[in-house]
Design brief:
CATH topology: 2,3-Dihydroxybiphenyl 1,2-Dioxygenase, domain 1
Structural class: alpha/beta
CATH class: Alpha Beta
Low-confidence stretches: none
Number of strands: 8
Number of helices: 2
CATH superfamily: 2,3-Dihydroxybiphenyl 1,2-Dioxygenase, domain 1
Distance between the termini: 61 Å
Strand content: 35-45%
Mean pLDDT: 84
Largest sheet: 4 strands, mixed
CATH architecture: Roll
């Protein structure tokens, strides 16, 4: 039997799954607070389109603890998005802050949790003037 020696490169996310204790609350949060495009419900799961990635949120069994995944959403203006989400009732546990200074941009992040305890990160790569 011949096996392939080709390198595997996992460089595009097609779907991300999260588990939450209250599916209705999570659906409302992702749809109404974060403004994601709702696709459909299927059993104990709800689906959203997030750019080229599909987000699946499923009901977590009672007593199984908080979710462990972190989703990072790239945003063009972190401060504006942060302010808009706070105005919609989102509570951040880390306000927008500078994470790293790169050669040509600064990386800013902020973090919040969804109703199921999953961590969400907002990230913005802010170009810097590299002239003189």
């Amino acid at each position: 039997m011949e096996t392939s020696t080709a390198a595997v490169h996992l460089d595009e996310i097609g779907q991300i799954a999260l588990s939450v204790p209250d599916l209705d609350e999570a659906r409302a949060f992702y749809r109404d607070t974060l403004g994601m495009q709702f696709l459909f419900d299927a059993g104990a799961m709800t689906f959203f389109q997030c750019g080229s990635v599909r987000l699946v949120i499923g009901r977590r069994e009672q007593g199984s603890g908080p979710g462990g995944a972190i989703l990072y959403f790239r945003v063009p203006d972190l401060h504006a998005v942060h302010a808009a989400l706070v105005a919609k009732g989102a509570a951040f546990f880390e306000e927008p802050h500078l994470v790293a200074r790169m050669k040509d941009h600064d990386l800013w992040m902020a973090f919040l949790r969804d109703p199921g305890g999953n961590t969400l990160g907002l990230m913005s790569e802010v170009p810097r003037n590299t002239e003189g």
